[in-house]
Amino acid sequence: MAELHRSAKNRKGFYVKMKFFRPKNGKPEKPFLLRYFKWVLWFSLSFYFFAKFLNNHEPNATNLKTTMINQSHRALSESVLQESNHNHGLLNDMKVYIYELPSKYNRDWLSNERCSNHLFASEVAIHRALMNSDFRTFDPSEADFFFVPVYVSCNFSTVNGFPAIGHARGLLSSAVDFISSELPFWNRSNGSDHVFVASHDFGACFHAMEDRAIADGMPGFMKNSIILQTFGVKYQHPCQNNESIVIPPYISAKNVQSTLSKSPIEGRRDIFSFFRGKMEVHPKNISGRFYSKRVRTEILRKYRNDRRFYLKRHRFRGYQSEIVRSVFCLCPLGWAPWSPRLVESVALGCIPVIIADGIRLPFESTVPWSKISLTVQEKHVSKLGDILDHVAATNLSAIQRNLRDPELRRALLFHDDVEAGDATWKVLVSLSMKLGRSHRRSRVSGE
């Protein structure tokens, strides 16, 4: 090394670099990196682990969005669980008395199989579930509520196959005459603790056309009673001028389960926006009335050639297999605001797009509709494509994740027996909320 130093003596730059190698006390000096190796190693490792920590914990947009979605989903599940636990307490001692009516009011109608499977069949499903439930009492003196099982939606027209409900008022009036003459409980409360089901277009007004339903109004003898009806709006309406509970239309839980067994809810969804149903090219088709307030016609005209939209006008028995493949399911109003598509969409994991201004949705106080659906105003239907594109680009994953919660699916389906959290259970919870403490005390004390 000494020779190298002398031969390079006149190369000043090189000399400066090599001066670290000068002998000291007659011994060669270690290179700088070797002398400070431990310190260099410590610094390098510390910097590496510190940088890795920052990288793993940096709140970038993707991580933050994922965290927020997961927290939202956990909050939704915890909310449903807390609500379920709370409802168990509410229902602890509630009792329902079911009137034993002559078969002409209910059982005779079941000779037609459609009666218990039609979209209006919640009147049958609720009756069946209550008959076998622990909430039923055979002692009317201890009942909180009295259920009047009259099936009014099972009289199917031979002309078009749709339910004909012209007989509904007379059948119900006859049933009330029967129960008020046989037992004192109707007259005692003037029917205010009696429960009926009106599971069709405009509920307790018993007509499929809104103007006629409004003109006829509700039967006077039912105005004090509690009506379980699929119809509901958030504004004043003659067909809900009473104690009413908005319930879901009937969709067979077995059919839903069969569809999901073939196509899981987490499966591929290759249809962006789906609708199958009545869409009139010329909507003014019944006595001068405009079907769907022209909404469905506007959807057909605007989007029938748009590849994002899968629109079909004809019936197809296996249409649930299309719903489970779809991202968005359009739920526009028909003659009435509500639609069975609301239930089918949620049950099969398709985001319901509700197009019905002012609609009241089933069990709004317990089902988090804002987290599992979209609402589009009727006047904005021409912007539907842009609206759905925006949602798909922003919070689509969060809504889909919420829809996969089985508790939400259970809440909108009726079963043969009451199941905790199912649609009949939700009906009982809604009834229980109407009970005041004074009513409970008077029932227990026999006052």
Automatic annotation (TrEMBL):
GO terms for molecular function: glycosyltransferase activity. Signal peptide: none annotated. Residues 92-389 form the Exostosin GT47 domain. It is a single-pass type II membrane protein. It holds the Pfam family Exostosin_GT47. Keywords: Glycosyltransferase, Golgi apparatus, Signal-anchor, Transferase, Transmembrane. InterPro entries: Exostosin, Exostosin_GT47. Its main location: Golgi. It comes from the Eukaryota. GO terms for cellular component: Golgi membrane. It is found in: Golgi apparatus membrane. GO terms for biological process: glucuronoxylan biosynthetic process. Belongs to the glycosyltransferase 47 family. This is Exostosin GT47 domain-containing protein. It comes from Deinandra increscens subsp. villosa.
